[in-house]
Amino acid sequence: MSRIEGLVFDLGGVIVAHDNPVMFDALRDRCAPGAGPRLQSLLREDRWGEGAPLTDLHGLLRAELGYDGDWDRFLGDWCCHFRLDMAMLDYVEGLAARRRVMILSNTNAGHWDYLTAASGGRLARFEAYLSHEIGVLKPRPEAYLVAARRAGLTPERLLFFDDLETNVAGARAAGLEAELFTSQAELERSLRRRGLA
């Protein structure tokens, strides 16, 4: 019998497809010429995923890079690169009807709010541990340990899926079982092999 009591899924690259260059281009196109390198540097800062307000980022883009979009335009550019994988969302919801399912994601309030709305509120029904709320990003082991502690489970009772090998390695370092997500079909096969489908 499996010792796994909770299935944990990353969001981006698993339930949500994202094309980051699309977002980058949308933001850059509203900035002054030559803003690309500084924009790239700003977007890579961990603070946006650790809970710093996105209004700060918007302000920096306007002050430093000449970004000409208001707040609503910024949110549109910031979220333009997402597409929900509805088949995967359906599958994970089906799992959640029979097993404890969680989301552990590096994200920010703007992206989470957008995706929650785009899913018709379906994502909000999951037990979610979001980096901007817990204050730490994967692949740092603390991210997984905080999620496990808040879930009331020991790490070895959790099985984690992520599309990035670095995040899978971080989960394993924290004591979780973890597998690389490559496709829904492979996920289904993996869960069947483990008797968790």
If you had to describe this structure to a student in words, what would you say it looks like?
By secondary structure, this protein is an alpha/beta fold. The protein folds into 2 domains: 6-18 and 82-193, HAD superfamily/HAD-like (Rossmann fold, 3-Layer(aba) Sandwich), CATH 3.40.50; 20-78. The chain has 10 helices and 7 strands. Strand 6, helix 9 (165-173) and strand 7 (177-180) form a beta-alpha-beta unit.
Describe this protein with a few key phrases.
alpha/beta; Rossmann fold; 5-stranded parallel beta sheet; 197 residues; 10 helices; two-stranded antiparallel ribbon; 2 domains
Multimeric status of the protein = single chain
Q: Helix fraction?
A: 40-55%
And the CATH topology of the largest domain? Rossmann fold
Briefly note the structural class of the backbone: alpha/beta
CATH superfamily of the largest domain: HAD superfamily/HAD-like
| Spatial extent as radius of gyration | 18 Å
Count of domain modules: 2
* Strand percent estimate: 5-15%
Strand order, largest beta sheet: 5-4-1-6-7
CATH architecture type of the largest domain:
3-Layer(aba) Sandwich
